[in-house]
């Protein structure tokens, strides 16, 4: 496989933000190893949210890790971060080296099959600060990632490969929504890690 063949500086967005797709950033064997250890060692829990006043428990599983036990609020529920595992620290180091940014927390998502996805949203919570950089590592089943401009409706689509890195920064969260569409075609699990910086 030809690693690092993608131009990571190319911007996928036409305006109002920066999204960079690096493609796979590790060997396939290494990505397989991380997928397996993440599936086993992470404390996966069903996500809870309060949407339009209704208490929802998602099929998708989540976990949150960081430098310390940050509390973090989104979708009207508050979570507390666990302290980094060895593998998460290794992956944090890798994305910090590649992006030149630093991160103090990571939100993990486990999509068991294509029947699970994530609805349109922006990662614009107050605790993340304005126009913060988010680095997203993907493992397992290849899935489609979509971005949509909040006012023009422009759409950008990127397939996220096993062991790949995607970066969202600049004004992306202010101006664009993103989602992971559901699909009947994918029967295998995917794990996604979004490295973030919590301020406060
Ligand atoms: O699974 C993905 O690629 C997207 C995850 C995401 O948008 C998030 O955790 O905020
Ligand atoms: Fe997101």
Bound molecules: 2-oxoglutaric acid, fe (ii) ion
Indicate the percent of residues in helices: 10-25%
Mean pLDDT: 93
Query: Taking Cα atoms only, what radius of gyration do you get, to the nearest Å?
Result: 16 Å
Approximate shape: globular
Number of folding domains? Answer: 1
Work out the number of β strands. 14
In CATH, what is the homologous superfamily?
A: Alpha-ketoglutarate-dependent dioxygenase AlkB-like
Brief overview:
The protein is an alpha+beta fold and 200 residues long.
Explain the overall architecture.
With 200 residues, the chain is an alpha+beta fold. It has one domain (18-196): Alpha-ketoglutarate-dependent dioxygenase AlkB-like (Jelly Rolls, Sandwich), CATH 2.60.120. Helices cover 16% and strands 43% of the residues. It has 3 helices and 14 strands. It has helices at 28-41, 86-99, 172-175; strands at residues 18-24, 45-51, 54-66, 71-74, 77-80, 82-83, 105-111, 118-121, 134-140, 143-149, 155-160, 164-169, 176-180, 190-196. Strands 1, 2, 3, 6, 7, 9, 12 and 14 form an 8-stranded mixed beta sheet that branches. Strand 2 (45-51) and strand 3 form a beta hairpin. The longest helix has 14 residues, at 28-41. The radius of gyration is 16 Å and the shape is globular. The mean pLDDT is 93. Its EC number is 1.14.11.-. Keywords: Dioxygenase, DNA damage, DNA repair, Iron, Magnesium, Metal-binding, Oxidoreductase.
Please specify the SSE layout and strand pairing:
Layout: E1 18-24, H1 28-41, E2 45-51, E3 54-66, E4 71-74, E5 77-80, E6 82-83, H2 86-99, E7 105-111, E8 118-121, E9 134-140, E10 143-149, E11 155-160, E12 164-169, H3 172-175, E13 176-180, E14 190-196
Parallel strand pairs: 3-6
Antiparallel strand pairs: 1-12, 2-3, 3-7, 4-5, 7-14, 8-13, 9-12, 9-14, 10-11, 10-13
The structure holds 2-oxoglutaric acid (AKG) and fe (ii) ion.
């Amino acid at each position: 496989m030809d690693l690092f063949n993608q131009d990571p500086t190319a911007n996928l967005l036409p305006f109002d933000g920066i999204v960079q797709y690096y493609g796979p950033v590790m060997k396939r064997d290494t990505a397989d190893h991380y997928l397996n250890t993440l599936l086993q060692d992470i404390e996966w829990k069903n996500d809870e949210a309060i949407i339009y006043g209704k208490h929802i428990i998602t099929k998708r599983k989540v976990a949150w890790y960081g430098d310390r036990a940050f509390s973090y609020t989104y979708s009207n529920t508050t979570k507390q971060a666990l302290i980094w595992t060895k593998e998460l620290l290794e992956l944090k180091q890798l994305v910090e080296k590649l992006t030149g940014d630093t991160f103090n927390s990571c939100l993990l998502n486990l999509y068991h099959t294509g029947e699970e996805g994530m609805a349109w949203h922006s990662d614009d919570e107050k605790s993340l600060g304005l126009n913060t950089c988010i680095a997203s590592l993907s493992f397992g089943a290849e899935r489609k990632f979509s971005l949509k401009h909040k006012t023009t409706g422009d759409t950008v689509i990127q397939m996220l490969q096993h062991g790949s890195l995607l970066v969202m920064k600049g004004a992306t969260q202010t101006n664009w929504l993103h989602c992971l569409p559901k699909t009947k075609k994918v029967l295998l699990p995917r794990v996604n890690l979004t490295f973030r910086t919590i301020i406060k």
